[in-house]
Amino acid sequence: MSNDRILAVVFDMDGVLTDTEPIWDDVRRGLAREDGVPWPEDATDRMMGMSTPEWADYLATTVGVQGDAAQVAERAISRVTDRYREHLPLMPGAVAAVERTAGRWPVGLASSSPRRLIDRVLEMTGLAKHFGATVSTEEVPAGKPEPDGYLRVCELLGVDPRRAVAVEDSSNGLRSAAAAGMHVVAVPHPAHPPAEDALALADLTLDGLDELTLDRVAALG
């Protein structure tokens, strides 16, 4: 609608549309366990939002998983891909939320997942046709909490980030969207709730995607 002050909505993927953060965590922990290295207490939270090169380097250099970053990334991504083939868990209301939102605004995706997994998820869910732009943070200079991914999606959609809404769940994702100057909707994942300082950056906090109504999104403008 031409009178909307909101011009686009950009979703995160893992933890917002797909309930796949536990899969990533399980796979990465499994690599450390196989290689006989301890799992740092803060590793899971540290890697949320990192791009593929960033988290792979973290696993290789900080955690001590065997191989260089490229080898670690390939090990992890291959296993995650296999898990997705077995079962791709979606967050409640995810498909309906995207379809509902895309009926009114251009919709984008800013994800820390590698490109091949983004494309696989959107194909498996039948949602690909709704997205005008999708960006993996491996395709921009820095992952979340830096704003690069969100800024690139807004650029591809042709909208000012200040007139776009980001839907996020994680601390680094919320920080990334806020740093991009977007309106921020938080849908915290119950298993990995964001830090209080990150949640405070949100303009709106919801208990689930069913609460992401068109009126609520429009009101952010």
What does this structure look like?
This protein is an alpha/beta fold and 221 residues long. It folds into 2 domains: 8-19 and 89-219, HAD superfamily/HAD-like (Rossmann fold), CATH 3.40.50; 21-86, DNA polymerase, domain 1 (Orthogonal Bundle), CATH 1.10.150. It has 10 helices and 6 strands. It has helices at residues 21-34, 43-47, 52-63, 69-86, 94-102, 115-125, 148-157, 171-179, 196-199, 214-219, and strands at residues 8-11, 107-111, 131-136, 164-168, 183-186, 204-205. Strands 3-2-1-4-5-6 form a 6-stranded parallel β-sheet, with helices on both faces. Helix 1 crosses helix 4 (69-86) and helix 3 crosses helix 4 (69-86). The protein is globular and about 55 Å long. The chain starts with 7 loop residues before the first strand and ends with a helix.
